[in-house]
Amino acid sequence: MNETIGFIGLGVLGSAMAGNLIKTGFTVIGHDIVLEKQKAFEREGGQSGASPRDVGDKSDVIVLCLPTSKALHEVVGGKDGLLEGGREGQIVLETSTFAIADKESARDALAATGKILLDCPLSGNRLLALKRKLTAFGSGDKAAYEAVKHVIQGFAHRTFFVGEFGCGMKMKFCSNILNLVHNSVAAEVMVLGMKSGLDPELIHQVISGSGSSSSMFEVRGALMVDEDYNKEGMNFSIPLKDSRLISTHAADHLCPIPIYQAALQPYYAAVAQGHHDEDASAVCAALELAANHTRKKKKKN
Amino acid sequence: MNETIGFIGLGVLGSAMAGNLIKTGFTVIGHDIVLEKQKAFEREGGQSGASPRDVGDKSDVIVLCLPTSKALHEVVGGKDGLLEGGREGQIVLETSTFAIADKESARDALAATGKILLDCPLSGNRLLALKRKLTAFGSGDKAAYEAVKHVIQGFAHRTFFVGEFGCGMKMKFCSNILNLVHNSVAAEVMVLGMKSGLDPELIHQVISGSGSSSSMFEVRGALMVDEDYNKEGMNFSIPLKDSRLISTHAADHLCPIPIYQAALQPYYAAVAQGHHDEDASAVCAALELAANHTRKKKKKN
Amino acid sequence: MNETIGFIGLGVLGSAMAGNLIKTGFTVIGHDIVLEKQKAFEREGGQSGASPRDVGDKSDVIVLCLPTSKALHEVVGGKDGLLEGGREGQIVLETSTFAIADKESARDALAATGKILLDCPLSGNRLLALKRKLTAFGSGDKAAYEAVKHVIQGFAHRTFFVGEFGCGMKMKFCSNILNLVHNSVAAEVMVLGMKSGLDPELIHQVISGSGSSSSMFEVRGALMVDEDYNKEGMNFSIPLKDSRLISTHAADHLCPIPIYQAALQPYYAAVAQGHHDEDASAVCAALELAANHTRKKKKKN
Amino acid sequence: MNETIGFIGLGVLGSAMAGNLIKTGFTVIGHDIVLEKQKAFEREGGQSGASPRDVGDKSDVIVLCLPTSKALHEVVGGKDGLLEGGREGQIVLETSTFAIADKESARDALAATGKILLDCPLSGNRLLALKRKLTAFGSGDKAAYEAVKHVIQGFAHRTFFVGEFGCGMKMKFCSNILNLVHNSVAAEVMVLGMKSGLDPELIHQVISGSGSSSSMFEVRGALMVDEDYNKEGMNFSIPLKDSRLISTHAADHLCPIPIYQAALQPYYAAVAQGHHDEDASAVCAALELAANHTRKKKKKN
Question: Which position among A97, B15, C258, D60 has the lowest Cβ density within 10 Å, counted as fewest Cβ atoms?
């Protein structure tokens, strides 16, 4: 199975994914507009492609992991973009989180040159990516998905086919709503508990593993207990960026999402208060400020 | 360890708990104002006490599992109540969900006759109670808690000592807030997903076990998928009753709880729409009505 | 029409109302458990009654303006209470804001001695009361209301008969919900406007008098512009007390009130941050803290 | 002062505004891409311009009232657009509601040909426009604003200069937030009142004119009382379109707007339930459905 995988976008997440594809045994040809990142990728055992087109020409399957929909537009239709190279029937995996309409534009442009774009967003962060613990929501042409499923499994331990093109993003929105609400309500409960005299560590211990718990409560609640918001994790930039897509998506479908909107507002407060680059569990600090709560013992670190 | 446990309140939850105490090997003397329930209890191997006072006289430790704070008031200070019998140093476990002030009144009244009341609310429902899978939040006199911990373990598989008297209730409020928000947001996500074209069963399958999941999402999400709201579980009466205690508790501590309040509102809608006696996962039906969503395939049952 | 009006409860609001009854030409016999207040009332031209019973014996119509439902219970059924004196057919106006059930208890007790209680809460504050600008929501026996309408007009410039006993309180809840939401959203808009670079005074000037305005926006928005929260007005104690009645009332009727609940949460934050004794327009300060907004120019006073 | 005003966009609002400019005594040259609308305009006494460029060549001042930012882009920079004609120093009034960034693009493009764009959104609807009762929020170059203030007054009875370019839109956002929240909370109060037994007409009568009232409550509350949602007014399309701009604006400034978001959600429900083309007071119908309230007497019309 000596397949060659093209990988465009070697950033925080992409570099971890591409690294796992190499470890899995694929030949990986990577490209990033930042030279530095490409060099780092070579040190991990990857080969460099000069442009999206070059990557397309040299690869069987292509994976995209890009920061903005503008970058997607460039990678596909820009100078030396994917449209200019590759081959008929080539499958391209779009793993980023963009508006469905933007992904559809890219799909249509690629289809005109015989290529097949799959919408395949991921759930997880760099820490999980390094451990190959991402979840993939594949959608689009089912046969194409089946044909590249083994590639997806090179960076994701859970992979699902979730329906026609765009369903991947829709599932990702569901996932993100739960993440954000579970995180915010964990903070709400921590602050109410502390204000009424409970020890935060005890709250975390008692709830974890019970029917009242969530993954977010367990992972991020631990950071709230320790006020340890500088851990490498997921800062506020991704959830706030995604919140615009989610709000638009729900509005397009005329679907009220009052709980999500209520849980989102303290994110703005947290960032306005200077926590942007911290883990999103720092939403707890914003709620403590609102409730005028001061912890007795100082933070551990 | 041939101890005798008194058990007052043999309702939906209490009868399951008392049954497990019998199975554990305790002699259990039960009492309920409804004769029917006392008879049923005898068929399970229990003995009947004529009154709270009688139960107190014949037992080492007493467990209370009552429907209202008024019942607590009666059981403690009413005619043939606990105040009239029992013995110095006797430990009484109050496992119900009442306002802390009401439990404090009972504690003070019992203390005047040398008895020790522990505030020890439980998390779980009848299904979990039958499997001895309740969680207990013990609080009050720590030595007393340690002395009866083995009794608590006769009906709860997870037991915690969470602080001074009333901390049990405070922990229970934290637990209940998470339960309700996790349930409501599971419905919010299900409805948004369905409205945008995702299959609900697939949403449940993909999210379950992921970092976006919660216990509530997994247990109640499954009922939402099947629109199977008649399962024996937890209907709306308990969470709505508890919501009054939680709102008052948060107000007393001047602590905003906007996410809980947002997630609570559809519970009123669900009950107003006739779902009171169904499992609280039926909040999903209220959200579907609001979003004017009609499922393609009919419910399974 | 030389009628004698009894007035029980000569506090912040009651003293202003009783003063206006005197000015209108009534003989007013007042009572308050605080001697100081009774003395002040005499200086305003009132006569003192020794007890509720004494007031009842000497008056044609009785007005109650009390701080707590416990006080109502005492005034009616306590030692030397209204039940012990007065006369058959005597009309008692209950103008306070209490749970309907508490007012119903008082009504039933008085009815047993042939007296007629009207539920007649008021909208307004001391400033408006001094100017005889209160609004009265009369409810209960319609003939009784008509018989004492001229008395109500002695302290309220707008009087309405709004239905059977308790409808007064229900209308008051509607009124209070609007007050609180209009105040909170005025602050929300002020803070968003200021954060995006608008001058708060200009916001207030442009919106006032337009179709986007509310009374609250005009009155309290002016205080927000000046950060002038120490004016004699309506501090946080009344709206927070009333919020418990409103939440319970809506829950009793299974009616979601998500906007009110969202608008109420910053009140807790404001009080937790130390603004309890300031005018409720200080909710703006809590929102500025959350949004981390600092005003350029200092407050005027 | 025989000035000639160019008017581009003769839709629902624009035709009413242009009509008033004619009545004020201006010569008005109108243009719309829909020929029908241009013909109607001629019947009102206007003259037709063949294109934006033609309008620009023949006018002293130009007013834009357009449906989409794409239309703005076309009118300014498209074939036969404003960039191709007009004169140095010509002032263009942009009265629509678009993202500030879109208006800034137009401003910059026009500035390159020496023209001055003012951001001057309006508050009001067609009914108010016909009565010349719009409110204008002028912003940008102050001298330019002063120079055309008399033109603005030809269609708006209240005109304000609110700051640098874009401040007009910011003020409009403040105004719209209040409009939407006041409308939704009016419905919330109406439904709670009705569910608890109050007559809706009485609620409207008692609150109107009191300190609890708002313009929206008075105007739209009356429609809620009558369930008369088909009146010519403001349907859901504008507030839902504007809500995207407002949410983005608040997110850009990291400003929580929880009350607005809570009040916005029932708008989606109302539209999902089929009320899109009705007046936005129909949000009341969505809340009645949620609370499962059925009115006793039928609607009047």
Answer: D60
